[in-house]
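Retry 2 of 3 after timeout on previous attempt. Resubmitting structure tokens to design endpoint.
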């Protein structure tokens, strides 16, 4: 598996992967209003705007056939998207590890990565060292939990 920064011409593939994975996994059990709200917020224009910010980290994971199988998007130290086509294969962990190394090279000791985890993704983020910051919240019918992880620079 290869993890790298995505190029602007790959935004469309990333956009489609996020929508596809959301509809196949995260949308189960949500109201139609919640699904519609998510899809309304996740537009091509929104992704192009995110990419224009110099603090944005936009990564892709590619399999041995060079197919895009995972996407990570973060605005600085706030992780906004982490979607993988096949769970349990280490794709999400590989994307996050690459992102974490980028942040460690840019950070001051003790900075914090934040995210809003869906209830189904909480165990994954806990395994990566995240802790709950607040109780379950809901926006547009989508439940999430604010989580954070304090970074430590590697000492060599």
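Retry 2 succeeded. Sequence:
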């Amino acid at each position: 598996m290869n993890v790298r920064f995505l190029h602007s011409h790959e935004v469309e593939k990333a956009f489609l992967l996020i929508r596809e994975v959301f509809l196949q996994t995260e949308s189960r059990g949500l109201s139609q209003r919640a699904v519609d709200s998510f899809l309304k917020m996740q537009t091509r224009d929104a992704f192009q705007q995110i990419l224009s910010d110099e603090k944005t980290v936009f990564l892709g994971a590619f399999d041995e056939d060079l197919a895009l199988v995972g996407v990570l998007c973060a605005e600085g130290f706030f992780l906004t998207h982490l979607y993988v086509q096949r769970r349990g294969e280490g794709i999400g962990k590989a994307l996050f590890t690459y992102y974490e190394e980028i942040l460690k090279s840019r950070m001051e000791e003790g900075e914090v990565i934040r995210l809003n985890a869906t209830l189904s993704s909480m165990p994954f983020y806990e395994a990566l060292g995240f802790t709950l910051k607040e109780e379950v919240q809901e926006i547009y019918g989508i439940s999430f939990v604010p989580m954070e992880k304090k970074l430590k620079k590697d000492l060599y």
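Attempt log closed. The CA atoms of residues 15 and 44 lie 7 Å apart.
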